[in-house]
Amino acid sequence: MTDKDIAKATGIGPSTFHRWRRGEGRELPEIEKVRAFCAGLGISPAGALAALGLDPSRDNPEPEPPLPPEVRRILRTLADPNVPDADKLVLQEMLKMLADRADRAGRGRAP
After folding, report:
1. Cα–Cα 20 to 30 A to 87, which of 51, 63, 71, 77?
2. pLDDT 10s digits, 97-111
């Protein structure tokens, strides 16, 4: 589909969905816009909402506290079906290492 086709089907302008794809912006996209975008393309919004850190099973999903842009990019990468599993595994292992380090620091022990 072209950008024009996507915009016509979803009601969401190309600049908006390209900004979402690049992970730009300080705030999460409006939930209704994400749902409209998915509906226009005939896809379930569950994956898109999960990639944004929202619980798609709730009628009114509440966002988690804001995440730094770097963390959002990592989460989007992990949710992207086009990213090779090997790349996702590396990111997951690094996140586990960082989480362990944060746990140790939170308990007052040196990392």
Report:
1. 63
2. 998 888 888 776 655
